[in-house]
Amino acid sequence: QVRVVESGGGLVQPGGSLRLSCAASGVIFSISVMGWYRQAPGKQRELVADITRGGSTNYADSVKGRFTISRDNAKNTVFLQMNSLRPEDTAVYSCNARGAGPGWQLDSWGQGTQVTVSS
Questions:
Q1: Residues 22 and 111: beta-carbon distance below 8 Å
Q2: H/E run at residue 47
Q3: d(CA 14, CA 9)
Q4: Which residues, including other chains, have CB under 8 Å from residue 118's CB and lie 6 or more apart?
């Protein structure tokens, strides 16, 4: 079992920045990838960025060059630094931890944190 808890959402003006945090607890060694997803009203949930245990990263085209995902292994925490925010970045951002092994699979989600970009 792995639990993930997000923090850091809020209201920001266009062009501003926010940093989201996702703290994982539980059976940490089972996590192979942690990622951030977002869902805007009326839209499907989409991957924003993810990072592997080894540090490889992957970004949605819409956030490349603006968002940076990183991790602090000592604190079992993943961060999403969001710069140059746009109104279309408004969504509920959720953290995900996943992994798999012989006979088991991990797919844990946080409750989500609202990010609103508006003037």
A1: no
A2: strand 46-52
A3: 14
A4: 11, 13, 14, 87, 90
C-alpha closest to that of 37 among 106, 95, 89, 86:
95
Q: How do residues 41-85 score in pLDDT, each as one tens digit?
A: 999 999 999 999 889 999 999 999 999 999 988 888 999 999 999
β pairing state of 57-59 and 2-7? unpaired
20-47 per-position pLDDT tens digit:
999 998 887 788 899 999 999 999 999 9
CA distance 7 to 1: 20
Q: Ramachandran region of residue 2, left (φ > 0), alpha (ψ -120 to 50) or beta?
A: beta
